[in-house]
């Protein structure tokens, strides 16, 4: 059988591991070592040449019944190159073993390792959530403690009832009307009273007086220079005197106080009177007035007029000055018109009472003849119930 021709290769080939072939010993020569089958690579590459290792298997036709023969044919090296082949094979085997995945230490399976990792993640998350909960809880307690300390450090009010009233009245204090609106509504009432006198009473002296001392005594005014009967006896004074009397009567009936406020609700008319007013008493009266108006308006209709008080006022005035009435109008006509004027006055009184600002009517400014016809209107307290250092004049009065 011809020997294989050696071939040269410039590339490395992968070492193939084959199972060792079983060897059967036939008739071995004396003094010769039995052949040993060594697994070799198909090819081993050296820097200069390559080796070819071939294994031949006997066929029935060419070989006798002897055992299979394994032959190793070197290409360009001597028999001593077998050590080189073995060294190369061992090196290649070590390299392949290094590249293979190494088993886990201490026989730990991959499932157990994955479970441990997941457990660590869950435990870390639980600890993080618990720590955050404790942190925010402690922070919230600290904030509460700070607020409690802040409130405890504040001094208690010397007048807790006043502060309670202040908070309650501030919730029910209406928005104050502007000064022009207040002025216009008051002057409108004055105009209605003056028109009633102009239309229903004569400027001539009374021709049929009936016991003037008893009928006119309740209308006497400290702001007139003489008694009413004396003034009405003078020509040209009737209109001014009657206007003064009617306006003053209407304003008295819409002003709270003892013997006044006949056209106001009873709770409005019973406003406490303070002799020596101070800033504290002004605040108390302001809060009382605001709360009283709020409660009354919630329980009563928008237009709750005491018709009996209105009719009584109109009848007394008409009967007292019948001798100065204009004969062109009947008593019923005078009563009807005066009732409308008194009703407007009652509505104005309720509106002024519920206003945050306080107003007063000043009569003490007579003219050259010493007679005041309509009073001066002044604002004495602002929308917070504080008394003004200088009263604000809303409307000048008229005088004669």
UniProtKB/TrEMBL annotation:
Record field: compositional bias (Low complexity): 1-31, 38-82, 161-172
Keywords linked to the UniProt accession: Membrane, Transmembrane, Transmembrane helix
Source organism superkingdom: Eukaryota
Transmembrane residue ranges: 112-136
Keyword Transmembrane: yes
Chain intervals for the UniProt region annotation (Disordered): 1-82, 146-177
Biased composition (Basic and acidic residues): 146-157
PANTHER family for this protein: GLYCOPROTEIN 38, SH3 DOMAIN PROTEIN (AFU_ORTHOLOGUE AFUA_1G13610)
Annotated protein name in UniProt: Uncharacterized protein
Organism: Aspergillus lentulus
Lineage, opening ranks: Eukaryota, Fungi, Dikarya, Ascomycota, Pezizomycotina
